[in-house]
UniProtKB/TrEMBL annotation:
Residues 22-90 form the BON domain. This is BON domain-containing protein. Gene3D superfamilies: 3.30.1340.30. Pfam families: BON.
Amino acid sequence: MTYPWFFPDDSPPRYQTVFGSDDTRLAWQLLDRMHQNPLLRRESICIEVQNHVVILEGSVSRAEAVVEASRLAWDTRGVYDVNNRLRRLDG
């Protein structure tokens, strides 16, 4: 079972070191990387990870945000695949 990680409501706490599963660890890592990225930190992105596959959902303000979120997901060690369902608000 995985849990969606919504963004940008709160920044991820950096003190958590024990994770329930690899999928949870991957979601936290990606959430942290998106929070540090100026292009993504204010976007409404839901991150879910199932069996090392990242699922990105939500609406973003710019096409560049769709591309950058996908790039960060692919660049996260341990991710096998990315299902990018992000949509631009105006399109």
